[in-house]
Amino acid sequence: MIRALSLIVALGLTACSAEKAPQSASAEPSFAPLKEPLGQIVAMRRLTEAQYRNSIADIFGSDIRVAGRFEPIVRPVHELIATGATSSTISPAGLEQFDAMARAIAAQIFDADHRAQFMDCAPRDAAVPDPDCAARILVPMGRYLFRRPMTQEEVAAYVMMAGKATESSGSFHKGMELALAAMLVSPHFLYVVESAEPDPESPGGLRLDNLARASRLSFLLWNTTPNDALLKAAEQGQLTDPVQLAAIAQRMVRSPRLEDGVRAFFADMLLFEKFDEMAKDQIVYPRFNPDVASALSEQMLRMIVDQLVTQKGDYRDLFTTRRTFINRALGPLYQAKVTSTQGWVPYEFAPGDDRAGLLGQAGFLALYAHSGRSSPTLRGRAIRELLLCQPVPNPPGNVNFTAVQDVTSTAMPTARMRLNAHNSDPVCAACHKITDPLGLPLEKFDGIGAFRRQENGAPIDTAGLFEGVAFQGNVGLGKALAASKSTTECVAGRAFQYATGRVPEDDGALAGGIEQDFAKDGYRIASLFLRVATMPQAYRIAATPLVAPQIAMTTRTGVHP
Predict the structure, then answer these.
(1) Same domain flag for 266 and 287
(2) pTM score, whole prediction
């Protein structure tokens, strides 16, 4: 093993004392490096785990393995992970993990089985540096990894690094491996670095430039890095032209890859990271096992994608549809037979069944419940906060939950009775009036989402109330949500927040305008995404431009001869 190398990478231009980029960039690498510095950096958004994995697969191929632990992005209270990504830092331990992943990825790409796909030149001598060939290999890779052409200074730095590693290891391919690993831990890959230019429509203001728009479009609609066609459109200045931007976005929402964008959006909106933490009491719920746990989130996403993308359905029908998908693991929970050879199969709940829509999915019901019992309060709060965008205050620290938690009480056998006793405290009642009328209608589903007719031998009352309308059960609740404008305004505002990483700053007027267009298009999710992707407000910079700090990251990427 050779001596470890230190890589200093900065968010602005890479400051290095290296020689100029190899002039056999006149034997021209596929894409010439930038001669001018980057524009004003105004925002940074850290890649999510899915975006990282999708980017590696799209750039290098789906057979390249990505193994390791991803440091989580902290979700701001009542907001999206997409918003938290704009202020997410990487700890030293997290960087160690990214470094290990980068080295493993680079080793695969330059191994004997893969390297020919990525090398359009061969070194003059595989044991000594060849800066011309190194540049021809790294410049196209850098364009995809950094989502823009590399600068001349960056090319010089990475080529120099490859050369030094080649000298130490006696292998051109090991040198390339180290240079690529360093690129994979650059902030320009781990973060979507957004740059801006003067906005001709707003004197003194800024708007995202073409390359930043390419990334925003691709991560919003496809949850992955921009492809060659989108980068070329950006390089040709097409994405700041409203007509051309609309045409490109139209093609993207018609692509099958929109499914990936929709999955990522709803996984963020519905707090799917909680599935990783979900645990159930095996004594209370013996049917709950790892296979069931892993199937719950996928069932919800399949149902959402089928309704909104495949069927091109009305978003409001997401709360009333009886169509879903199940597999063998979920069969017993839904009392349906599915063989192991069938995989995921369409399934329709019977007309008299109280199962319908998103809230009837076992994943939602299990996620918003306790380990050994259901929770009308957790479920009602999730509906308020996630689907209606109506934050609910946290309970005071000194609340006595004894009455609610006593699930064996013969005097108060049902959750409704126990909550009524608990709510005798006016401090508690204020919040429970917000949550419980939406959670109690779901009480015929236990803590893992299985149907039940009674609790502790007592009949379950599923009466509910929402916006002055009384209803019964999950089906009634789904219809009430589908009829509420708050439901569609919430998803419209979330879509803008997801795309931009910021909450609409004008007290809901912007979200209201998006919702009106959403309504005109029949509440189709593709229309909502298209509207957000093409509206000028999504690319205007409202905040003070970011002054890019000089961030030094030291990697211990080793090269083995």
Answers:
(1) yes
(2) 0.90
